[in-house]
Design goal:
Elements lengths: L9 H6 L2 H24 L9 H35 L16 H29 L7 E8 L2 E6 L4 E3 L2 E4 L4 E7 L4 E5 L4 E5 L5 E5 L5 E7 L11 E7 L1 H24 L1 H11 L7 E2 L4 E2 L9 H8 L5 H10 L17 H4 L2 H12 L3
Parallel strand pairs: 1-5, 4-10
Antiparallel strand pairs: 1-2, 2-3, 5-8, 6-7, 6-9, 9-10, 11-12
Amino acid sequence: MSQPTQSNAPGDQRAFDNTSKLVAIAIGVLAGVAGIVVGIVKPFLSDAASTQGVLIDTLFGITLGVATAVFVIVQGFLLYSIIRFGRQEGDETDAVPVRGNVRLEIVWTAVPAVVILFIGLLSYQVLAEIEQPKADQLTVEVKAIQYAWQFYYPEQDITTSELHIPLDRQVHLKLRSQDVIHSFWVPAFRIKKDVMPDRVTETYITGSELGTYPVVCTELCGAGHSVMRSQVVVESDADFQEWLASQGVAKQQAAAAAAADPLAAGKQAFNVYGCNACHALTSAGAVGALGPKLDGIGTRAGTTVAGQSAEEYIKASILKPAAHMAPGFADLMPKDYELRVTPADLDALVKYLMEEK
């Protein structure tokens, strides 16, 4: 039995009459306008604060604009078809069987293919541009630790807990984790990069707006993941140089203070190794709540485990935390501090905590 031809179907004739053509033109114009407006406005984004972010936002705007146009076209024709070609009340007859439309299938396969190819090539171009190194770049080594960020400036031999960068100067970030997988994300810069323990990952940022912007870990790295925060400070070159000088002075002062007062070195180790992320300790300005409060630990430590001195207990709690779990707290502390902490820093940290009476 031969199949009915589409040209003889009343519905098919109405699909190509003047009304349908006018509706198609109207939907096309609406889709184009909507795509352009949404692509330019980018309603879901705040202003980017880096040169890389501007390029990424442009790419996002184009993608969002194309997606909006496609959405309007598909939904527009769907709504029009439902209204005009839907079954009329009281009509119980069968619909006309349709085999398909080869030309239409070619169009809706070819057009998305071209769009995807265009966006793919544009994405490659943007990626190549944002990862193009500059001759005057500043290198910063980023270390991720459960649950803190450390930033090391190798040229100045300075380690800090927040990232300072000069305005309009490319910064080459070399990222590595000391424990588990983390992810370095600066929302205002549109840059996100995984940070892994077995390799160094790299990315580039160039701050284009003065200000302070949050750094977030976006890879679930443990119970303290939500508190693994820092910030990027974008400042003028003069202010950046002044900050570097102040950090150098602070480092010298810290070294002198440590030589004169061993407890100062312990306090510094407490913050550098991320203890302040999980524990509260007034003298260190720490307000963490994931682990037990350490005020008075020097008094409690000597009486917690029979036959164990305060020094032995504190050291064991750092190196083998699962052996001395405080009631009411989960076993969250990393188990590799024996590899992380240098012997000198461990001794200084233990002495510092022993003085917390």
